[in-house]
């Protein structure tokens, strides 16, 4: 049994992580998610990174179920982020809801380093420019094998 002083460093010497900014490549710039309904609505989530990586998880009524890592061209991801700026995403309402209980939702979260993330939920009634952005992201995800591709089997 040791009888001398312990050699554990004081708490002040332990690394601090709470205020360390997350490098941009380690955090998704966009998270695109579609929720289920009682019918055959696609249900999936895609975390899109600045370098083009897409961490995709398909749940039901999609071409790919389970977790997959996909890739978008980095310039396409940059175009998506640029479009969020053009439409004033940060100033949009947080929700565009229908009031119906079984409406699927589309969620888009924008993460800008050094800023608070912003999430918008859409069921229906979104401004045209937001709907155009959601369609663009959905179409680009479908090109790489993810998203709204519903199987008839």
Characteristic terms for this protein:
single chain, alpha+beta, Mago nashi protein, seven-stranded mixed beta sheet, 2 helices, 24% strand, DUF6438 domain-containing protein, DUF6438
Task: Please give a structural write-up.
It contains 2 helices and 7 strands. By secondary structure, it is α+β, with helices and mostly antiparallel strands. The protein has one domain: Mago nashi (Mago nashi protein). It has a 7-stranded mixed β-sheet, covered by helices on one side. A hairpin with a 5-residue loop joins strand 3 and strand 4. The protein is globular and about 35 Å long.
- The number of domains is 1
- State the helical fraction: 10-25%
CATH superfamily: Mago nashi
Radius of gyration: 20 Å
Number of helices: 2
Choose one word for the global shape.
globular
Helical/strand content category: alpha+beta
Proportion of residues in β-strands: 15-25%
Please identify the top-level CATH class.
Answer: Alpha Beta
Second rung of CATH, namely the architecture: 2-Layer Sandwich
SSE string, helices as H and strands as E: EEEEHEEEH
Low-confidence stretches: 4-23
Mean pLDDT: 84
CATH structural fold name: Mago nashi protein
Strand order of the largest sheet: 4-3-2-1-6-7-5
Q: What is the first-to-last residue Cα distance?
A: 67 Å
Largest sheet: 7 strands, mixed
Please count the beta strands (DSSP E, at least 2 residues each).
7
Protein name: DUF6438 domain-containing protein
Domain DUF6438: 30-139
Region (Disordered): 1-26
